[in-house]
Design goal:
single chain; two-stranded antiparallel ribbon
Amino acid sequence: MPVSPLRIGDVAIGLPAVQAALSGYSDVAMRLVAREHGAPYALHEVVLDELVLRRGRLQRRILSLPEADHPVGGQLMGSQPATFAAAARQLVDAGFDVVDLNFGCPVNKVLGRCRGGWLLQQPDEALALVDAVLQAVAGDAPVTVKMRRGYDDSPASERAFFAILDGAFALGIAAATVHGRTVVQKYVGPSRWEFVRRCKQHVGDRTLLGSGDLFSAFDVVRMLHETGVDGVTVARGCIGNPFVFAQVRALLAGETPPRPTRAQVGAALRRHWQLAREHFGSDALGAVRTHAIKYGQYHPDPLAARRRLVAVRSDAQLDSAIAELFFAGGDDGAPEPLLPEHAVVPAAAAAPGDAEC
């Protein structure tokens, strides 16, 4: 089945597989590495509207976008229309190509502040936020919404979900992303792709992206074909695995997806480390260390690689670990980041976490 190039409003993206907003992960270094390996579009990790508006070092980091980091989406979370709208305007003025509104984060501290997934219980409040942002952005960038399939599995929750989805499109959003788990479900249990398919049938020609349980290129292509969505957002499946985007492109072209060698994985991690140092300076090790551990899961001996990378506490130790794990002794034994079509997802990839909000 042919898959059409992805567009979000007037932003042409092409490959219908993009890097999701990943809390604690999708910083500028991760986004640039993903782009160098074929990701056509990436989202900044979710940020609170208050932080976008608060002057200081963190605001400058959020709003600073290198020329190579486009098109890029800025994902916002908040609960007050005025600050939500002002922060959205700041993102557009800073050069973000798309503004994405987070109505899906299941983390308890977020729900307790009436943000993220909590809003799926409150259609009027959620739509007031959408309306305020659309007015503030004033057509200068597409606005999108990220949702889970409801707060819980109750009929009332499903009605609220569709009230928000339909209302947001009626107000003028360019696209929505639907994750196939509920907020209460968090990251436990399967993502219900049949619900994602039902949502795509419901919205018709309007742009809908799917999310959830995308750990390999095969998963991405299967979701595109099984649900009919216009695109997918790859989340935990691309942490430490920027190769997935080229693999998706190959599969969609009817080609055999390329499997990176151990040295190629090491080169990607080394490039990630270089970019982190360029953009974060003395904070680079903290920014890249968790990524390095994820790259390690694609080493021929993932447990040994993980132990070595978890123990890293200095720049010199990380440089040494990369050299010894991925380049020493030649390129014997290629890693296997591309899972077979029906493979069991590795524990490191499938473990619950709060990366994707």
